[in-house]
Amino acid sequence: MPSVPRVDRLKPIYTAAKALNFGWRFSDFLKIPAYNGISRYTNQLHRITVRFCKQSESSVGVRNFIENQIVEIGRKNPSVVIYAQPVRNSNPSIRAEYGNGRTLQINAKNMTETEVSKDFHLLFSRSGEPVVKLESRQSALCPSVQGQWTPITWLPTAMNTESLPAKQFSEHKSTATSATEYILQNQPK
Amino acid sequence: MLSRRLLIVSQSLLRRSSPLVTSSVSTSSEAQVIDTDRIQKEVFKSISEEVAENQRQRLFAVVYVNGRQWKVSDGDLINLEGNLPLNVGDEIKLEKVLMVGGANFSLFGRPLLDSNTVSVDAVVVEKKTTNPELKYVHLNHHQTKFLNWKSDEATVLRIKSVTAKAVQQ
Amino acid sequence: MSYRRVASRFDRVNQWLQFSRQWHVIDANQQDAELLGDKIARYLAGKHKPIYHPETDCGDHVVVTNCKDIAMHAFDWKHTVYKFNMEYPKSKADIPAWQIHEYDPCRIAFLSVYRSLGNNLLRRRLIQRLHLFPDSEMPEFVRQNVGSQLRQVQEVVKRADEYTSEERARFPKVVKFAEGHVVDWEKSIQNPGRHSKPVPGQKEK
Question: Which GO molecular function terms does the record list (chain B) (predicted)?
Answer without folding.
Answer: structural constituent of ribosome
